[in-house]
Amino acid sequence: MTANGYLQLGLFLVVLLALVKPLGWYMARVYQGQPVGLDRALGPLERLMYRLFGTRPDEEMNWKSYTVAVLLFNALGLLAVYGLQRLQGALPLNPQGLGAVTPDSSFNTAISFATNTNWQGYGGETTMSYLTQMLALNAQNFLSAATGMAVLVALIRGLSRRSASTIGNFWVDMTRSTLYILLPLALLLALLLVSQGVVQSFSPAHTVPLVQATADADGNQVTEQVLPLGPAASQIAIKQLGTNGGGFFNVNSAHPFENPTPLSNFLELLAILLIPAALCYTFGKMVGDTRQGWAVLAAMTVVFVALLGVVAWAEQAGNPRIAALGVDTVASDLQPGGNMEGKETRFGITNSVLWAAATTAASNGSVNSMHGSYTPLGGFVPMFLMQMGEVIFGGVGSGLYGMLIFAIIAVFIAGLMVGRTPEYLGKKIEAYEMKMASLIILIPCALVLVGTAIAVVSPGGTATIFNTGARGFSEVLYAFTSAGNNNGSAFAGLGANNIFYNIMLGIAMFFSRYWIIIATLAIAGSLASKKLVPAGPGTLPTHTPLFVVLLIGVVLLVGALTFIPALALGPFVEQLQLLQ
Amino acid sequence: MQFVTKQLRPAIVALLLLTLLTSVVYPLVVTGVAQVAFPAQANGSLIVDSQGQLRGSALIGQHFDQPQYFWGRLSVTGPVPYTAFNADAATGSSGSNLGPINDALVGPEGTVQARITALREADPANTAPIPVDLVTASASGLDPHISPAAAEYQVARVAQARGLSVEQVRQLVAQHTAGRALGLFGEPRVNVLELNLALDGR
Q: How far away is chain A from the Cα of B89, in angstroms, using its nearest Cα?
């Protein structure tokens, strides 16, 4: 990689980390009900909404009511997405006259967007009408993100309250997330993106003449190109900020109308990690000790940088088999070099690998290059980032509540080593919390491994594998890894828009998201009801470099122990074949 | 059961109201502002020539394989390369997902070798190593750019096919080359469609 490449990577991290404190501080105020400036303008609207909901904002919920509210709200959203897809042929705002989406694809997409996975089984521009994109997909981009943030805030309250029976009001947390955090950021980002060339239009597609006519496989002359438009910028802004990732167009953020310039790419990249990173500070602020938030953020950043290094090295080294054909793959100021298969010229290697790492560290899942044509070790990185449970930044809200569960496990393991009852932030960690934490860790792992195992031994699972050999296995492993951790990116060679994968991956996404939410809220409720244990000489401080290392160790260990055997069959074996 | 029914009304009303806000009001506001502030960008960055004719989009590449034009990245869209949308075939943007040891990519009949052969046949005198972006497929299938190295590789061929001097063609390439944004972000790149339109004098 050239010096400019390192500079771009470094600058991205610096800008990201510089934004953590201001945004994290702002979000803490939003969740603690303090004045934030925007509430002067939006306060009346917010209060009107609560009146229409029929809920009193100061009426708090215990963890069971909170869970019911989350699940009910998500179930209704899921049904709405399904219904809109099935009926889009009869609904307005459909200038290309697209028909109903198939039942299995609608099922998959409904779960996918409600669970903040945004696995894209469908081709955007060829399947979804403008109305479906807006009312179904765009709405869930906001609401699934707000759900994740609300659950996180409930868990933080559980950690910070003493002898309390309630953990907040879901309707308030969700509404405030949307009104004061997601909407203003999305509005700003959307307009910046339009200025770069991201389309935002309700006109039907343009038809333009080709400069050079071409012929299809049957010898028919093709003299025109059809350019699809749509209200893309508004949707892309929230798809990145909400770690959703489902594209307006089939190739997602590689499409020049979604991501036309290096600057649009930088802004979108920033948006992917912005809220998950800043929430760490929010967490510290809300538990009254910002060092706790910085420690968690440090653990995330260290893992991220290390794995970013691996994918950058692997892709820049390129494909020796292409170099062997007399092709120049050395990076210079005149060309990106490296493994350019499935990558865009304007992004080169640097911005493609940075995106690949960011989108899988966060549970975003949008892509600006095709992970399916990465080198074996390059493709291993996004897969492993997901397999650690989407806690390295992770989804908005969900990443941090996942990481806090890992923190609980880390203090538990440390407690075992010295034979003391473990505590985190002054709360005793006991059998009930550990049972729930174990479920949270084990469920995605089981969904990924069992799902992959079923797929590779059933005809429905192997029929649509694109590449042969180890890469074909990686495609299936990647798909279940992505669905089982609510990421949404893919080794997209795999044909996943069929009954087998739509249903299998739909089930994986559904159980992963909601099992974890239920168990997390159960922990929140249990912790809220506990007394505060004053820190003693035997308490493990959780803001020190030692704890950061311990936390990283636990995350890596769980990921590695669970997935190394499966990874050995995919990327590792393929890397050996590549070097042969 | 009572606490389930108690949450039903807020769930329904919240979904409706927030959908209205995030999916109707918000996109319409963005569209309204975008159409006023950035009309060209919001509508696809279209290229209109001096006669007022629509020629394409500055952001979406087109397919070229004749010697007098610069060639872009390989594209895996169907039914023809650089199909941005085809209603009949239900196809649109599409990227390459060929693995690095797949014969369809690196085998003797693979896409890389086929492109090398085509480039060499179009310009047998050129024995320079070919820049990698010229023999690999893009992520979108619509990539409008090639690297400056990939343009330089083709300059002699285009100059010869058009009876222009190498210097004249190089100058045009330079005019359609964009550097890194702020000298820092992204990669230097040449817009193939705009360059070819300029060569045709449009």
A: 9
